[in-house]
Design goal:
The protein is built from 13 helices and 13 strands. Strand 12 and strand 13 form a beta hairpin. It has two domains: 246 residues, Aspartate Aminotransferase, domain 2; 132 residues, Alpha-Beta Complex (Aspartate Aminotransferase, domain 1).
Length: 396
């Protein structure tokens, strides 16, 4: 059944109509000069969204998972050692991929709901006097727990240890929605996808490689074919791809970056912070808590909301879909059944967020939780009214 309700999952996100139409285009010869008029502006736009002057951008017909594989297969070799922390489902999945590729992974375990332990990274990196660790993995925004981590702190840890390892960052649910500074934070490979901050359908893996990461590709010996950035770079030089590209999605990406940059990246980040803060106010009014262990860890793109002990949080997601035709996110991994997630990224406004908050209240009331109808909505309204007033006054 077709639904006109917005979705409140952490991706794919709601699509502006103008982007949906940009993706829906007639067949175009991807070997003609017309394709270059789509490809090269899209690459340039992504580079600006990453806040990079030096990165090489590569876009594959894939998803964020393909971006992870691009990062490791183009820069590492069988048996290479990498350092990673496991503090959520997506940091876990990246670790799993590395192990399947025959990499040696040193894993730092951290509680789900906490951020990346940069201090422990520094300890391990400092102790690695022979520099066996070739890459450090960071999940900037852990979508399963609604937790953001301090990427800059990891760069400081690398610098303090005087360690030459590459820094890989999963920015799938942060890039285009939360502040991300590829050059300033010394990121060597940044990974994202089309279906979150870029407000498009799933189907594009988007990666940025620093000059240092580009140099590492010459020595890397992990197998790579589809995700070989050397082939992709050769295709770009001739205005095309080494195989058939997703032309419609690339056309959408070109326009998406234009929309983000015309709104202004700082304004995009402020909008997401404002919407997220209203949802956090609602959660507090409900008498519930977030999975994130402290306020400074709270993500501006997804909130994982803990339900009372003994209550299956998945019932909230199922009931919302069945009765109200609204999609929320289920808990994943260690927090499955203990949290439900409200995604608040991409194409979203304060008013749209209020509809999600109101629906969540109805669902929880239907299921017998002690949540008073209107309490979270009122808390969010009060926050949004104040935040909007401040914005108007600043513009005056």
């Amino acid at each position: 059944m077709y639904s006109q309700n917005p979705v409140f999952i952490p991706g794919p996100t709601n699509m502006p109509e103008i982007l949906r139409k940009a993706v829906d285009m007639p067949t175009l010869d991807h070997r003609s000069p017309l394709f270059g008029q789509i490809l090269h502006p899209a690459l340039a736009g992504v580079k600006k969204v990453l806040k990079s002057e030096n990165a090489e951008i590569f876009i594959f017909p894939s998803t964020g998972t393909g971006g992870w594989e691009t990062a490791i297969s183009n820069t590492l070799s069988p048996g290479s050692q990498v350092l990673a922390a496991r503090y959520g489902m997506f940091s876990h999945r990246w670790i799993d991929m590395c192990e399947r590729h025959g990499l040696e992974v040193e894993i730092i375990e951290a509680p789900w709901g906490s951020g990346l332990p940069a201090d422990r990274y520094e300890e391990v990196l400092t102790a690695d006097k022979s520099h066996r660790i070739r890459a450090v993995l960071v999940t900037h925004n852990e979508t399963a727990t609604g937790v953001k981590s301090d990427v800059a702190a990891v760069r400081r840890a690398l610098d303090a240890a005087q360690h030459p390892a590459l820094l890989f960052v999963d920015g799938v649910s942060s890039i285009g929605s939360m502040d991300f500074r590829m050059d300033e934070w010394g990121i060597d490979v940044a990974v994202t996808g089309s279906q979150k901050g870029f407000m498009l359908p799933a189907g594009l893996a988007i990666v940025g490689f620093s000059p240092k990461a580009m140099a590492a590709t010459a020595k890397a010996t992990l197998p790579r074919t589809f995700f070989d950035i050397r082939d992709m770079a050769g295709g770009y030089a001739n205005g095309g791809y080494p195989y058939t590209p997703a032309v419609g999605l690339l056309n959408g990406l070109k326009l998406s970056t234009e929309l983000l940059l015309s709104e202004g990246l700082e304004s995009v980040f402020a909008r997401h912070h404002r919407i997220a803060s209203g949802i956090r106010a609602a959660v507090k009014a409900w008498g519930l808590r977030l999975c994130a262990h402290s306020e400074n860890l709270c993500s501006d793109t997804v909130s994982a909301i803990c339900t009372p002990e003994g209550f299956n949080a998945t019932e909230i997601v199922a009931h919302a879909a069945r009765k109200y035709d609204v999609a929320f996110g289920v808990g994943l991994g260690e927090v499955a059944g203990r949290v439900f997630r409200i995604g608040h990224l991409g194409s979203l406004t304060d008013v749209m967020a209020l509809s999600g908050i109101a629906t969540a209240e109805m669902v929880m009331a239907d299921l017998g939780l002690d949540v008073r109808l209107g309490s979270g909505v009122a808390a969010a309204q009060n926050y949004y009214r104040g935040a909007t007033t401040s914005k108007i006054q600043a513009a005056a």
